Amino acid sequence: IHQIFTLTSPSNMIDSFMEDLPDYGESQIVVFAQSKQLLLELEKAILKENVKRNKPNEPKPITYGMITGDVNATSREDYITRFQNGELKLMLISIAAGGTGITLTNADVAVFLNRSYNAIDNKQALGRVHRIGSEKHESILCVDYISEGTVDEAVLEALDMKGEALENILQDKKLLKKMLTNNTIKDDK
């Protein structure tokens, strides 16, 4: 049986992010998610918050752009340009659609609402923010919003274990040489 699940509000990750948003101050933030549905729920929360902010004596509305597979090339480039020019506070990006090929070095915060199961995809996504041009920032803050006891927690733990295993393999030069040359390991006496 093939089942399709749809995300709905409330989302404790989105609620936590929206609650934390003032703490990020003037930072520009790229928000990554594997799930486009999660980004669409975040967009709803932003729009709801902006209704409140359109009243006197409230902070200015939250400006944002979004890159998913549904966004056409013209809008995508417009969002990127506006973000890089400091006109947008947030850039919401699905890892599949915006994880490669774009530069968002104006951000000094990268947020993952949920990660890809593929560590390389996550690293590529973070590379949109942390790349040549980002050295203008003293540092780049990377934040994961994880709900305890969820599949997202298990994914992050699995990615950490995969990273540690790969690091151990790469540190063993003999094993690495064997893997790359398909040779047997010989003692270097």
Counting H and I runs of at least 4 residues, what is the number of helices?
7
Radius of gyration: 20 Å
Class computed from helices, strands and strand pairing: alpha/beta
The portion of residues assigned to helices is 40-55%
Outline the low-pLDDT stretches. Answer: none
Number of strands: 5
Assign an overall shape: globular
* Cα separation of the termini: 59 Å
Strand order of the largest sheet: 2-3-1-4-5
Quote the beta fraction: 5-15%
**Overall mean confidence score, pLDDT:** 81
Name the helix and strand elements from N-terminus to C-terminus, one letter apiece: HEHEHEHEHEHH
* Biggest pleated-sheet summary: 5 strands, parallel
Summarize the entry for a quick read.
This protein is of the alpha/beta class.
Structural key phrases:
189 residues, alpha/beta, five-stranded parallel β-sheet, 5 strands, 7 helices
Walk me through this protein's architecture.
- With 189 residues, the protein is an alpha/beta fold.
- It is built from seven helices and five strands; from the N terminus they run αβαβαβαβαβαα.
- The protein has helices at residues 12-20, 36-53, 73-84, 95-98, 119-126, 151-171, 173-181; strands spanning 29-33, 64-67, 90-94, 109-114, 141-144.
- It has a five-stranded parallel sheet, sandwiched between helices.
- α3 links the parallel β2 and β3 (90-94).
